[in-house]
Design brief:
It is a single chain. This protein is α/β, with parallel strands linked by helices. It has one domain: Rossmann fold (3-Layer(aba) Sandwich). About 35% of the residues lie in helices and about 20% in strands. It has an eight-stranded mixed beta sheet, with helices on both faces. A hairpin with a 2-residue loop joins strand 2 and strand 3. The radius of gyration is 15 Å and the shape is globular. About 40% of the residues are buried. Its main location: cytoplasm.
């Protein structure tokens, strides 16, 4: 049973609409869908939305992406949650924009936020929802790319992806991870 949905991103207005903040975007949408307490609380280095009707919290770590593990560890401790009871939502360069993948566990795949979580909580055994953002043409452009906003053309598809990710998470909360995989794992292009 999932007890915390953790959307990864970078805090601050500067990063609000960037590719790296897809996790935050999904977290906001889910919090709205579940009618969570909109007055987030600063706890565990995160903005926490409490959703008492669903016995789940939505967290947006405020540690910056590369230090996400610190926030996740504090969430686990403060809320007495096991790694298997969190769902981490984040951007994935290796998936095209429009792809969504739900996984029970796995490696970091080179994602620094996930790497930080794995290194800090000492396990890869936590569920995650990967949101494809595509990859830039040149490898040296990766950091600029993930910190750039979506183009006007991409925004149309992004809205569909965010809606699908929201539905996926609602499904996970209702039916669990394994029963939700077929519904969640899609390419929307």
């Amino acid at each position: 049973m999932i007890k915390a949905i953790i959307g990864l991103g970078n805090p601050g207005e500067k990063y609000k609409n960037t590719r790296h903040n897809v996790g935050f975007m999904v977290a906001d949408l889910v919090a709205k869908s579940l009618n969570c307490d909109r007055k987030y609380r600063e706890k565990a280095f995160s903005h926490i939305f409490e959703c008492p009707d669903y016995d789940v919290i939505i967290a947006k770590p405020q540690t910056y992406m590369n230090l996400s593990g610190n926030a996740v560890l504090n969430i686990l401790k403060d809320y007495k949650i096991k790694p298997s009871e969190i769902l981490v939502v984040y951007d994935d360069l290796d998936l095209p924009l429009g792809a969504v993948r739900l996984r029970l566990k796995g490696s970091s795949g080179g994602h620094n936020g996930i790497k930080s979580i794995i290194n800090t909580i000492k396990t890869e055994e936590f569920p995650r929802l990967k949101i494809g953002i595509g990859r830039p043409e040149k490898k040296e452009e990766v950091s600029d790319y993930v910190l750039s906003p979506f183009t006007k053309e991409e925004k149309f598809l992004l809205d569909k992806v965010l809606a699908h990710a929201n539905e996926c998470i609602l499904n996970v909360l209702k039916y669990g991870i394994e029963k939700s995989m077929n519904m969640c794992n899609k390419n929307l292009v």
